[in-house]
């Protein structure tokens, strides 16, 4: 299942986060009961109104879990996004000359956008695989018992 949420330059979401969450949950509901679904969000300001979805009757059985201000050991998506960012940086470094060489009649923004769109549409699918997500989620399992027991954890392990 793919959920695409884009942030604008101000850090605010363009489009509706609530709509995206509803679509994701409805897609999940088509395959399985939602009673065992937990949506994990970090504390980014763009997620401030996300809880309103879980107050709706249709999604009342879904749990929303908010992570602490900095919890990389419990935030599998951070590791996934880190792998994606690294791949994009490698792609941009390899194509630096092409990126800087703007064709006649094309704006710098339009030219660079083609490289960013490639990174978003092609590299994302190549890097962010089900296997990578599975590995990153399984990595956090080692920290769950400590989190449940409210033990202190070393950040970044």
Model description:
One of its GO terms (molecular function) is nucleic acid binding. This is Tc1-like transposase DDE domain-containing protein. Residues 22-91 form the Tc1-like transposase DDE domain. By secondary structure, this protein is mainly α. The protein folds into two domains: 1-66, no CATH class; 72-157, no CATH class. Helices cover 51% and strands 8% of the residues. It is built from six helices and four strands; from the N terminus they run E-E-H-E-H-E-H-H-H-H. The protein has helices at residues 17-29, 51-54, 76-94, 96-100, 108-127, 130-148; strands at residues 6-7, 13-14, 38-41, 63-66. The strands form two sheets. Strands 1-2 form a two-stranded antiparallel sheet. The protein has a two-stranded parallel ribbon with strand order 3-4. Helix 3 crosses helix 5 and helix 3 (76-94) runs antiparallel to helix 6 (130-148). Residues 1-15 have low confidence and may be disordered.
Strand order across the largest sheet: 1-2
Strand/helix succession: EEHEHEHHHH
Number of helices: 6
Proportion of residues in β-strands: 5-15%
Percent range of helical residues: 40-55%
Please outline the major beta sheet: 2 strands, antiparallel
Quantity of strands, as a count? 4
Low-confidence stretches: 1-15
Give the termini separation: 28 Å
Number of domains: 2
On the 0-100 scale, what is the average pLDDT? Answer: 83
What integer value in Å does the Rg equal? 19 Å
Q: Structural class, from secondary structure content?
A: mainly alpha
Question: Could you say which overall geometry the principal axes of the C-alpha atoms support?
Answer: globular
């Amino acid at each position: 299942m793919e959920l695409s949420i884009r942030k604008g330059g101000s850090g605010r979401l363009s489009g509706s986060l609530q709509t995206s969450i509803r679509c994701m949950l409805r897609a999940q509901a088509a395959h399985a009961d939602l009673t065992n679904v937990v949506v994990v969000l970090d504390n980014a300001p763009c997620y401030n109104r996300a809880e309103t979805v879980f107050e709706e009757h249709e999604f009342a059985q879904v749990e929303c879990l908010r992570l602490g201000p900095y919890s990389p050991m419990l935030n599998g998506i951070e590791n996934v996004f880190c792998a994606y960012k690294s791949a994009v940086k490698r792609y941009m470094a390899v194509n630096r000359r092409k990126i800087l060489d703007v064709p006649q009649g094309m704006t710098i923004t339009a030219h660079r956008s083609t490289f960013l769109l490639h990174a978003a549409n092609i590299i994302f699918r190549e890097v962010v695989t089900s296997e990578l997500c599975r590995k990153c989620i399984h990595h956090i399992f080692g920290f769950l018992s400590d989190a449940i027991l409210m033990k202190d954890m070393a950040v970044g392990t």
